């Protein structure tokens, strides 16, 4: 890592190993004194080739790989994939399975938002809040572990249903945990909106207007904090979101504080939803049979991940191995908004602004675009691409 | 033959090293699962700081490299560079199944396969992801290994 002066500009390179974020990503900030005048991001350090790898595994094996696209939102990836495959196979999971999918998705949202709250506070130098929120997050980790036996990759989904049932004892445990967390969230809401130091670092920082959010294609809480009413759970209800609807939460401020407020309000909404599902859990089977060979066709499934819209495109050629799996993740959609609103702020605000979109690098690194100035050829034949790949990795 | 002076100095060095190993964490392409569990070990419930273990930002201040992920081709050189920047003696803990064998990503075109192929590894912590307790146990194994020249794990 070295700073350099070229054409009178001072560039501060950060990463890929850096103390702020736990994942590798490379940033370059052009600064004029303390003020950032330009920002760029380089991704791809976590590119593992999952989409290509999915073409070498069968439909059932892929379930476990797509779960490992991201460790924070593994359940939504599996849900999106399972919904797509079920759509192709022409089956629907039973209502009880759908409700359990929604329940785990909401618990995952709670875990993800609390994790983010801590990390974002840590970026702002507020380590007390980091420790508090991570201590309380262990409650929801315990609940998830009680449901499925694992803390991070829940593996709740199957093609055509879910693996784990919720009995009365577990439901009581879930209710108790949720009650405790709701009480703690009131404290966080108070800190985020009234703590003077915290408000000083977040209010009117990184403002993004509604128009900009539309233009830059922001998704999830980042967009909702700018007043964009975009939520897949409401726009295109999947699993049992029609039966247990969620209330849309938006904020018009569009600054960093609004992103905190929106996420904490979403936590309340998740708690309400979890209780409602537990009280009105539909009876019935947990799985339906899904054929091993999936009929030929194409399917698109969308779900709302904790970070925004997640899209899966699946193509089957009638065998037990998918023809194509395309994943579009929310973090990648939000990068352009960070690069945009970072300009004009102090360098010291950067970690918090970056954390503001809840970046998830392992979700990001789905694709690599090669763009090397000069004679850029946009259309490559398969043979050219193959030769390029061989030369690149030699 | 070691003089009394070097012998004592080495004893003091080992003592100091065992009492406060500073660690650095690098994600070489894992899914985040291991990383959030490593972070969880620092937070109040698990709290590794009570063993004197501290997560450090710079490789130049670290004794232990806690590495996760199947080492993507993009991250390989960075991992090597971080390892080379660490002062001697240095130790590596590989966390997670994919760092051990490629795990769920085995056969993907952009991964090296495991951390051992890039840098020497002292302790392996299996699991996808390993629980925070397992990560702490892995670190404790490393410390035991430093203390005694004999095998760290007792049979039975």
TrEMBL record, chain B:
GO MF terms, alphabetically ordered: 4 iron, 4 sulfur cluster binding; metal ion binding; NADH dehydrogenase (ubiquinone) activity; quinone binding
InterPro entries, sorted: Complex_I_20kDa-like, NADH_UbQ_OxRdtase-like_20kDa, NADH_UQ_OxRdtase_20Kd_su
Record domain NADH:ubiquinone oxidoreductase-like 20kDa subunit: where: 31-142
Pfam annotation, one family: Oxidored_q6
Cofactors: [4Fe-4S] cluster
Family listed: Belongs to the complex I 20 kDa subunit family.
Protein name as annotated: NADH-quinone oxidoreductase subunit B
Source organism of this protein record: Leptolinea tardivitalis
